[in-house]
Amino acid sequence: MELVTKFTVCLALALAAAGAAGTATAQHEQEQQRRAPEHGEPHAGPRNYSRVVEPKGWDHRPASVDHHVYQHNYQAARSFRIGVYHRPGGWAPHHWVYGEVLPRAYWAAHYILADYWLFAFEVPPAGYEWVRDDTDALLVNVATGEILQVEYGVFA
Asked: Tens of pLDDT along 104-153?
C-alpha cells in the first residue's frame, strides 16, 4: 500500500509539473502574440466606403475676374478640422480682409488649398488660389498677393 501511495504522489507531482510547464508555454505564446510585429500586417482599407472625388468642373477656372462678385469677407457656414497650422516664421497673426496684399510667405505651396472643393469654396479664377491662414481661407492673386475674398473660421 505504501508503494501505491508513493506512486500516486509521484504521479500527481509529475502531472502538476507538466501542467505548470504547459501553462508557462501558453503564457509565453500569448506574450509573443501581444508584441507588435516589426512590420504591420497588410490592411485592405475601409469596407463600403467610396472615396471622395472631385466634382464635375472643379478644374474649369473662369478666365476673367469680376472683382465685385468676389470682393467679400464672409463668415464660414461650417468649420473643418484638417490639422495643425504653422504660420510662416517671423510673422505675427493678422486679421486679413479683401484688398490687402498677403506676403509671399503665406501663399507658399504648403499653404495652398488645392482641394478647395472639399471646403465648398468657389472655383478660383485663373491666376488665383485659395490659401489657408490659421482658421481662415483667403482667395489670393498668385502674381501680386492681393486678397480677393476671405472666409473666416473655415478651420477649427
From this structure: 998 888 899 998 888 988 889 999 999 999 999 999 999 999 999 999 99
Helices (H) and strands (E) counted in the chain, each on its own, are: 2, 4
Domain positions in the chain are 67-152
Contacts with 153 (C-beta within 8 Å, 6 or more apart), sequence order: 75, 76, 79, 135, 136
User: Phi-psi region for residue 56, left (φ > 0), alpha (ψ -120 to 50) or beta?
Assistant: beta
> Can you read off the three cell numbers belonging to residue 72?
467679400
- Cα separation of 152 and 93, whole Å? 14
Length, in residues, of the chain: 156
- Asked whether the beta carbons of 108 and 88 are under 8 A apart, the reply is yes
CATH class of this structure's domain 67-152: alpha beta
